[in-house]
Amino acid sequence: MSKQFGDLIKQARLKEDLSLRDLAGLCTGISFSYINKLEKGLYEPSRQVVLELAKALGLSPDKVLITAGYAADRIMEAQTNIYQPAGAMAQIPVLGVIRMGQSLYAEENLIGYEWIPEREIQGGEFFFFQVKGDAMEPQIPEGSRVLIRKQEDIKSGEMGLVFPGEGEAVLRKVIYGEDYLVLQSLNPKYPLLVCKAGQIGIIGRAKKVVFDL
């Protein structure tokens, strides 16, 4: 569905004679680089992003939702009662690829934003990380957004966002040994990664997983 959605957005953008930056400027919390990746079918957009782009381009929300693989709002309203969380809400950034030596909130890392009750993010700095690949399946499928509390240390057995040496950050279960760390995937087809303690950079602790049906 992601390629069909990307083609729809690109065609509508070009029809309105908008550049990627122009379209991003009409949206709230969506970068032009992320829109470019959506048009290429590289990411599965969240429902919120789909609706934001539909609004900016003057497209039918139902049509765009269905193209992106979601049930249309009018169908959902007829089938279920939509729960609206009580209390204040906060807008949290959603990050994709995070590279060693790069600013955490660099524009190329930013995918979009998600709303979350403020009561769930008390006492710290939080962001969502969008999972790539199948290393954490079946519990955390690709495309899931994991709420991360930014902190430099976590307890043994907890799940965290880490840099395993150089390269990109990954979500893994962290187990401490005497002078080493073990990074464990939830998917059994991936082997354990054993590293010296100083080789691992911890970005934060996983608090919650969100994914779209």
From TrEMBL:
| PROSITE patterns per the UniProt record, alphabetical | HTH_CROC1
| GO terms assigned for molecular function | DNA binding
Question: What InterPro entries does the database record attribute to this sequence?
Answer: Cro/C1-type_HTH, Lambda_DNA-bd_dom_sf, LexA-like, LexA/Signal_pep-like_sf, Peptidase_S24_S26A/B/C
Query: Which positions are tagged coiled coil?
Result: none
Q: Does the keyword Transcription apply?
A: yes
| Keyword field | DNA-binding, Transcription, Transcription regulation
Q: Which Pfam families match?
A: HTH_3, Peptidase_S24
Sequence ranges assigned to domain HTH cro/C1-type in this UniProt record? 9-64
Name the PANTHER family for this protein.
FELS-1 PROPHAGE TRANSCRIPTIONAL REGULATOR, PTHR40661
What is this protein's name?
A: HTH cro/C1-type domain-containing protein
Source organism per entry reads: Formimonas warabiya
The opening ranks of the lineage are: Bacteria, Bacillati, Bacillota, Clostridia, Eubacteriales
